[in-house]
Amino acid sequence: MKRLVILGGGESGVGTALLGKARGYDVFVSDKSEIKKKYKDVLLNNEIEFEDRQHTESKILSADIVMKSPGIPDKVALVKQIREAGIKVVSEIEFASIYTDATLVAITGSNGKTTTATLTHHLLTQELDVGLAGNIGDSFAKQVLEENHNNYVLEVSSFQLDDIYEFQPKVAILTNITPDHLDRYDYKFENYIASKFRIVENQTEDDYFIYDADDEVISEWLENIQIQSKKLPFSLNKIIEEGAYYKDNTIIITIDNNQIIMPTDNITLEGKHNIKNAMAASTVAHLLKIRKQTIRESLENFQGVEHRLEHVLKINKVQYINDSKATNVNATYFALESMDAPTVWIVGGVDKGNDYKELFPFVNEKVKAIICLGVDNEKLFKAFGNMVDVIIETQYMSEAVKIAYKVADAGDNVLLSPACASFDLFENYEDRGRQFKNAVRNL
Predict the structure, then answer these.
(1) I need a labelling partner for 313 at 20 to 30 A (CA). Which of 195, 242, 254, 330 fits?
(2) Residue limits of the Mur ligase C-terminal domain (predicted)?
């Protein structure tokens, strides 16, 4: 019996444990932190051996294969030992994909992954049997075991792509590439780019690669590598013969001489970046033979993603917008770009080596006040202190929202778009977004 050891007892770890056990592996789960009660209960009920708050080396190094949670960096001593012992280390998407014949649509990119994945799922689910997994929702491995969908839309991070060998999506989407998570890639941007491009490395000429043709990083990389799959770029600026482009408020998609034209006047998602997300998702839907009418209607009734430019409430004619999911500068760039009124901007958190220069034009043009919400706000004061009349710092979400309420006038926006990770004052970006919404509702 082959031994499967799983590092990390969260959603992907426990899902992989269940699938591994069902496929005849001897399974052991090990987590350095405490495993949440809901996951412990699943492991106990399924008689899967586990440990938490420790890693027992002898039990781990006896593995034939290790599935490690994407949150664990390769730099960790234990991971180095596993690799030195010649034990194969895989990610959940690699392990689960072996046990399904479903059509896989995999989506990666620095920004727009979640919106594009959720929107693609929304478009496909009208006419096909399709699961949504990866970095989002229920574990992919668990769904392969329990639901066995014919299609999956997978939101895939670079960390998950680092540990693939044979993972081969029928359709791969790369939304964009901007510097992010460089702390995991030896602060070398090219290592991070290479990681994202692993999404196409096992594709053949029967597969498809959908990508942003306006993204210089992607275009340059494509000039220097050979990929087997059929390219279907999308663009806001160029006319694309095979793929999708945007002109006169319409999206035009052409695949094998089959063209569909979609007006965008009634799309619920706002901002240019969401036109791109809509082009990517609609291209997948067109590829998988979803009817034109269905695509159009689905784009018009899609509600968007929580914590992503989410309109919370309007109070005294001031619109409060939750964009807590903007954990890097590029995401905040899109948020500020889409603001159409004077904006009170709540920003800050754990800085990942951010360069705020690209935000300067928008801050000068649209932002009337800045509220810094982080433990260390010095860099924000240096970057933006001279651009706005009001710049204030606080450590509390409730206080940030109260300050915003005082500073904002009728017709303004109050935007939470942190451009930083959330771990200094909050559990995660969801916690940060929920605290913002609660504070707004309590005004």
Answers:
(1) 330
(2) 307-420
Query: How would CATH label the architecture of 94-301?
Result: 3-Layer(aba) Sandwich (3.40)
What's the rounded Cα separation, in Å, for the pair 182 and 187?
5
- 31 token code pair: 């987590």
Nearest C-alpha neighbor of 152 from the set 177, 175, 179, 125: 125
The neighbour count for residue 268, using CB atoms within 10 Å, is 12
- pTM for this one? 0.85
Which residue ranges are tagged as binding site for ATP? 109-115
Name every residue whose Cβ is closer than 8 Å to that of residue 161 and which is 6 or more positions away in sequence. Answer: 91, 108, 167, 195, 196, 198, 199
Give 152-205 pLDDT, tens digit per residue: 999 999 899 999 999 999 999 999 998 776 777 878 888 889 999 999 999 999
Helix (H, G, I), strand (E, B) or coil at 34: coil
CATH code for the structural domain at 3-90: 3.40.50.720
Which helix (DSSP H) or strand (DSSP E) does residue 98 occupy?
A: none
Q: SS3 for 88? A: strand
Length of the chain counted residue by residue:
443
Residues 4-31 as b or e (16 or more Cβ within 10 Å = b): bbbbbbbbbbbbbbbbbbebebbbbbbb
Residue 372, classed as helix, strand or coil, is strand
Annotated binding-site positions: 109-115
